[in-house]
Amino acid sequence: MKIRSVITTALATLSLSGVAFAQATAGGAGGASGGTGGTSGGAGTGGTAGYLATAGSAGNGTAGMGATGGALPSVPYFTNVTGTRFPPAGCNDPNNPFKLGCYTSFLVLSDLDGDGDLDIVFANGGGYYTPNETDSKKNTVTGLESSTVYFNDGTGAFRDATMSDFGDAKSRLRQVAIADVDGDGDMDLYQPGGYGIDNDKLFIQTAPETFVDQAATRLPVGLKSRAGSAHFGDLDGDGDFDLVVGDWGESPRQSPGNTLVYLNDGKGVFAPLLDVVPPPLEPTIGKTPIDMDLADIDGDFDLDILVNHRNGQSRIFLNDGSAHFSDGTAGNYPAKKGPYTYNVEACDFDEDGDLDLLLDNAGGRIAGMGNISQLLVNDGKGKFTDDTANLVTNEPYADDNALKCADVNGDGHYDLLVASLEVPEKLLLNDGTGHFKFSPDAFPNIVDPTLGIDVGDLNGDKKLDVITGQGEATPRVDLFYLGNENVAIDSTPPKFRAVETPLAVIGAPTVMRLAVLDGVTSDTGEHVKSVYLSYTVNGGAAKTVPAKFIGGDLFRAVIPAQPDGSLLEITPTAVDRAGLVGHATRVTLAFGVIPAGEGGAAGGQVALPGAGGEGGEIIGGEPDGGTGPSSGGSGATTGRAGAAGRAGNGGTAVIEGGGAGDDGSAGSATPGSGEDGCGCSLVGQPQSAAPLLASLGLALLAFRRKQSKPR
């Protein structure tokens, strides 16, 4: 990326003078000829789209990176309403071209004040990898800027709360992080300095809309970070928010940086945890750690760290569950096919139950025209394959800065939004199979230097809106794009991407983690309104416990300890911001010996979830001759078929006793390979470890194997 205030203006003029982005020429000879810097080639079936093609010119056009076929029709999805919804921009000095708005590198939507709607927090300040800027006369222009916070009135109209609620909070920020760090049920805000000059700020919400900077007592003394990035998440499995900071060094453009971990003591006080991440790379291999993400990459229900280097190899740090990380990069993270990358986004765009990755600018490059996005497909265990050529069609080449997964057209599938520095923001629509095609004119024809983007329903109409933040070039006017009549009203309930099946340990709380997705991703877990577990014990009255967001797309719930003989039936539920409700398949856990009932049908062969161990003599079956269980969870061990089962007349299941009923149909046993004694289910797959008989087997294992501490 380069400083492009002049180029940006030129591109805006060019856009208005007839350049069509990704317009396709109808069938036959192929797509339109490429514009300046474009390439040409053979036609695809029915015509091939050109990038930045001059409208109407004939050619043997090719598109790059698998972009065959005609373009989608031109459909506007978003309307610029900034002038009527935003207060006057901060950092605005009409006599200084560098202060026509703040230098916004990042932004996040969150219900910061707890009133039920989404507010906006901007990360402002600094310059182009420098703490200050230099004007045309080589005078130093300070990079110290207000860290703007806008509060929403619920209708999508915003007031500037920066001065009134945060005391102006000037700094030089690259990113901010938001979470309930002190566990009191409201959101707190972390603003780390970006260049080792400014004190870090940790605003604790002590009452509604009352924020107090308590960094002096909650962070290491005198902390002045060099934070290219920062995120909160539960790294050690204790249920509170720990902190990860991507330190990009004294010379960000040349430094490999470092990843810093701070553990929360449960009350919002942070202490450094040393020597728990792999050491930095050599700068020739990877440098300038400009972004990071926390996500469960390998499917074990803890948060791994994705370190995104602007240049060179980015990295995957795999968590062992206790905030100790190993390097999972080698052989698993494909190389970039562009010169730089600024953002990594994790979402399950192919809907197979694991998190895939998107990186801006890394999918391919045409000299003089720019880059396209890279799509990396996860195999479920953290090994990624670059499938950009097959999955992306007609994306205009440009210099981009961030990506976001969001279901814009309401078909239940993630589309891709791309924040661009030198063309209007881009929308790539998902065809329902994980293939994405550029949608022309989705955004107004505004060319501005967008560095940050976030998506959510800001005015309560159940449609997605978009906020963009500008920096680097000028003008720096943060924009509000309202979803118009072509953006679908949300009608898709939230889904459970994966559900953990925990061990049933007598006398210990049951900790259960769940991966929840909805129509947009969120750094703060606010893509949904609430997640909870509804459960019964031995068929009694239903009770509920909340599942709290812990980072990535993970939530964590704790059910109180159960005594020997308890049968626990759990139904996970999620409610999104539109009020739509989604459920996961019921999970059943048995604790020890279940009192005898009247005897149902005999069970089939039983699959016992857990790490591979001894076979168990399990007696159990479904009522009235029901079928036996299906495959076991992670690390299943097959036990012998039982003789008696769950009563048909309200009785309970039996271990080692009871008379047999009629034979039930046998279930199949599928041993797994897990090591942590837990199973999981994925979206669209049956909860095979959940049925009653498998749970009875799980109870037996509690006596025969080393029990793991719940986390």
The low-confidence runs, each spanning 5 or more residues with pLDDT under 50, are 1-68, 598-711
Distance, first to last CA: 43 Å
Radius of gyration: 27 Å
Task: Name the shape in a single word.
Answer: globular
Helical segment count = 6
Instruction: Let me know the number of strands.
Output: 44
Q: What percentage of residues falls in helices of 4 or more residues?
A: under 10%
| SS content category | mainly beta
Strand composition percent: 25-35%
Question: Largest sheet, if any?
Answer: 9 strands, antiparallel
- Estimate the mean pLDDT confidence: 81
What can you see in these coordinates?
The relative contact order is 0.10. Strand 14 and strand 15 (242-247) form a beta hairpin. By secondary structure, the protein is mainly β. Residues 1-68 and 598-711 have low confidence and may be disordered.
Which secondary structure elements does this structure contain, and how are they paired or packed?
Elements: H1 5-16, E1 78-80, H2 82-85, E2 104-110, E3 119-124, E4 133-134, E5 140-141, E6 145-146, E7 149-152, E8 158-160, H3 162-166, E9 170-171, E10 177-179, E11 188-191, E12 201-207, E13 210-213, H4 215-218, E14 227-233, E15 242-247, E16 258-264, E17 270-273, E18 286-295, E19 304-312, E20 315-319, E21 325-327, E22 344-347, E23 356-366, E24 370-378, E25 384-386, H5 388-391, E26 392-393, E27 400-406, E28 415-420, E29 426-430, E30 436-438, E31 450-456, E32 465-470, E33 479-483, E34 495-501, E35 510-517, E36 528-537, E37 543-551, E38 554-559, E39 566-576, E40 581-583, E41 587-591, E42 606-608, E43 637-639, E44 679-682, H6 692-704
